[in-house]
Design a protein that fits this description.
Kinase-like_dom_sf; Ser/Thr_kinase_AS; ATP binding; Transferase(Phosphotransferase), domain 1; 9 helices; Protein kinase domain-containing protein
């Protein structure tokens, strides 16, 4: 029986702190726009990474499977457009290297931009810095700023990753976040072969809790998937040392019942709700994605393996229509293992994955109140140790939940 923790490769990730002299401009890294003006452009950030690296295989997989497509959604500017003091412009002559010693590149290219680990000089803390190229579309830029301000306000809530600060250079933003030390949910799924039911419950509960914080603040995430869920070691928790953290809020949008239909959809094929393919976005679209994750946790496979490819992110396009019709016709085999042994989990998953929004659970609160999740509230009495003999069988991952081939992001995710 495997342990709850995802495989640790922290030792293999050790890298020397690197800082280039401010008057030396090294070779530009892929996916980052170089700049010669002062203010800390990414071109003087890191030396070219040594090759090969211990993470070369995983990075190669990300590059091969993760080719995002950024498209505009026409989302409206949030009404709460005030953003707290998380934005700070770098002064003339001030370099991003004055604030951080950069260590390791986690991700490069696509809608996610470039993501690196770093050590913050002011307090010597380990952080993650996401480098985001500025958008030429002023409306999209203002929207992104407002969304980041709203997410920052949620930084004190459990299970939502805090945005510590955002430094602004001439051509790029540097989004600074705490470093999660427990790995991705994707890595957990890809390495574990058996998962106790109590772990599936806890992970589902904490994802719902995180998304609930967004929904209470009229935000919809739109790209919930295992790659956007991290574990953070938290020794203060009684149930488990790993706490779920929801990350990557570039695709968030403000939502209200009067939000108009979108001309483009956002998210990752395989996790996009059917109504979103037709331009209808709501909190229930996030609940659908959580249902997909629960299905994977319980079975080890995607509910619809063949439906993870789209040509573009246009509502009503042939690809979107084809996927919508396929989802409508798809019949999941709820009588196959392991579902008969876990009827309550099956009921929750079925209600999260209901094709019709009228039949799907309508709120996070409704899902958290489901019988399968009873007793999972943080205020509940301490649970006994996880019973490792009560495991879900048939969790054979065998690469069947490989990272999806593309992600559709709107203009604010560029």
């Amino acid at each position: 029986v495997a342990s709850t923790g995802s495989r640790s490769d922290s030792a293999s990730r050790t890298a020397s702190l690197t800082r280039l002299p401010d008057d030396v401009v090294g070779p530009a890294l892929p996916g980052v726009v170089p700049a010669s003006t002062p203010g800390g452009s990414s071109s003087d950030l890191l030396r070219e990474a040594p090759s090969p690296t211990p993470n070369a295989g995983r990075q190669k997989l990300r590059e091969r499977l993760g080719r995002p497509l950024a498209v505009s959604t026409g989302t409206r500017l949030p009404s709460a457009a005030s953003h707290p003091n998380i934005f700070r412009a770098l002064n003339d002559g001030e370099s991003i290297n004055d604030h951080f010693d950069f260590c390791e590149e986690i991700y490069s290219g696509g809608a996610k931009g470039k993501v690196l680990t770093a050590r913050r000089r002011c307090d010597n803390s380990e952080v993650v810095v996401k480098i985001r190229t500025k958008n030429a579309n002023r409306t999209s830029e203002r929207t992104w700023r407002a969304i980041m301000g709203q997410v920052h306000k949620l930084g004190g809530t459990r299970h939502v990753l805090d945005i510590m600060e955002i430094l602004e250079g001439p051509t790029e933003f540097y989004v600074v976040m705490p470093k999660c030390t427990g790995g991705e949910l994707f890595e957990f799924l890809a390495t574990e072969t058996e998962v106790p039911e109590v772990e599936c419950k806890r992970i589902t509960f904490e994802i719902l809790t995180a998304v609930g914080h967004l929904h209470k603040n009229n935000l919809v995430h739109r790209d919930i998937k295992p790659e956007n869920i991290m574990f953070d070691l938290d020794r203060s928790l009684v149930r488990s040392p790993k706490s779920v953290k929801l990350i990557d809020f570039d695709t968030c949008m403000e939502w209200s019942p009067s939000t108009p239909k979108s001309r483009r959809f956002v998210g990752t094929p395989g996790y996009i709700a059917p109504e979103a393919l037709m331009g209808d976005i709501s909190p229930q679209s996030d609940l659908w994605a959580i249902g997909v994750i629960l299905y994977i946790l319980m079975t080890g496979v995607m509910p619809w393996h063949s439906l993870v490819s789209l040509e573009d992110g246009v509502v009503g396009s042939p690809g979107a229509t084809r996927m919508y019709n396929s989802l409508k016709a798809e019949v999941l085999e709820w009588d196959q293992e392991p579902w008969p042994d876990f009827p309550e989990a099956r009921d929750l998953c079925q209600r999260l994955l209901a094709f019709s929004v009228e039949e799907r659970m309508s709120t996070v609160e409704e899902a958290l109140a489901h019988q399968w999740l009873c007793g999972m509230a943080p205020s509940a009495p301490s649970a006994p140790p996880v019973c490792w003999t009560n495991v879900i069988s048939q969790l054979k991952y065998e690469g069947r939940i490989a990272k999806t081939s593309m992600m559709f992001g709107d203009a604010i995710a560029k």
